[in-house]
Every structure is written in C-alpha cells, then in structure tokens.
Write a structure and sequence with these properties.
The longest helix is centred in the middle third of the chain and has 13 residues. By secondary structure, the chain is an alpha+beta fold. The protein has an 8-stranded mixed beta sheet with strand order 2-3-4-1-5-8-7-6, covered by helices on one side. Helix content is 16%, strand content 34%. The two termini are 14 Å apart. The protein is globular and about 45 Å long. The chain has one domain: 2,3-Dihydroxybiphenyl 1,2-Dioxygenase, domain 1 (Roll), CATH 3.10.180.
C-alpha cells in the first residue's frame, strides 16, 4: 500500500517541475489539467489537479492498494468495523479503471481506498451512478465537490 495525496495546484507545469525536483521522480502520468507521480521514497502517490482558483489546496486523501489481496483485506476489515461508508464499486474514471470504496472519519474527511485495474483505459468514461462509490466526490450520500475529480 501507499498513501495518495491529491492536491489542487494553480499552475500544473510549475507544480510538476517543483515536485519532480523535490522527490527526484519524473511524472508518471500527465493529462490536460492532471498529473500524478509514483514516488518510491517515501511511498506516495502524489496527484495534482490544475485549478486556477481552488478554495483549498487539499483535493482528497486516499490509499492505493497495490495488490488485490491488500484491497480485499482492507475492504473486509473496514466493512466489518463499520468504517467503510460506501460499497465497493468498479469505476471507469477519466484517468484509470479501478475498484474503490470510501471511509469517512469522524470529522467528515473522506478517504478513498482503491486498486487500479487498468492505468491507461481507452476513451474517457465516468461512473455517474450516485448509488455506487464512483469517482472522487461521487460517494454515496455525499454531495459532489467540484474540485474532487478522478484520481488514479
């Protein structure tokens, strides 16, 4: 597993240059208004979303499970303890196909738990079914945040 930190940045090119230098790691994936890094030390998935005037820098926090076994163990453990706040759903977000669910902490911060199934899907599909744990900000019973978008 590795933590995922998704940030809103004002200028994607400047942020890519900064984080590439800071973590001595090249960008892993880049799309219009989006980039991510797979940083080995410290183990971190850093995701950048370009928003010229974000209301805050933090977009969301997540945990990427690197194996199906990690994902299954986490979902079983969090479901049994009633910490999971959504069902597992397979989503076709704009940047990857993934299984995911959400856990929301007592003060309302939602954590995305996910496993990437296909890092470069063809076309751009979105899961907009509000009854499933869809793309970021599309959690069941949660209002969508315009700054929270797909994250893989």
């Amino acid at each position: 597993m590795r933590l995922q930190l998704a940030l809103n940045v004002k200028n994607l090119d400047h942020a890519i240059a900064f984080y590439s230098e800071m973590f001595a790691t090249p960008v892993h994936k880049q799309r219009d208004g989006y980039a991510n890094f797979e940083i080995s030390q410290p183990p971190l998935k850093l995701v950048l979303f370009e928003h010229p005037n974000p209301s805050e820098n933090l977009n969301h926090i997540g945990v990427e499970c690197l194996t199906m076994d990690e994902f299954d163990q986490a979902s079983t453990r969090l479901t049994k303890s009633d910490l999971a706040t959504s069902d597992i759903a397979q989503t076709g977000c704009c940047h990857a196909k993934q299984d995911k669910f959400w856990a929301t902490e007592p003060d309302g911060l939602s954590w995305e738990w996910y496993r990437i199934l296909d890092d470069g899907p063809k076309g751009e599909t979105k899961n907009t079914d509000p009854s499933q744990a869809g793309c970021c900000g599309q959690q069941q019973d949660q209002a969508s945040n315009s700054y929270q978008v797909c994250c893989a």
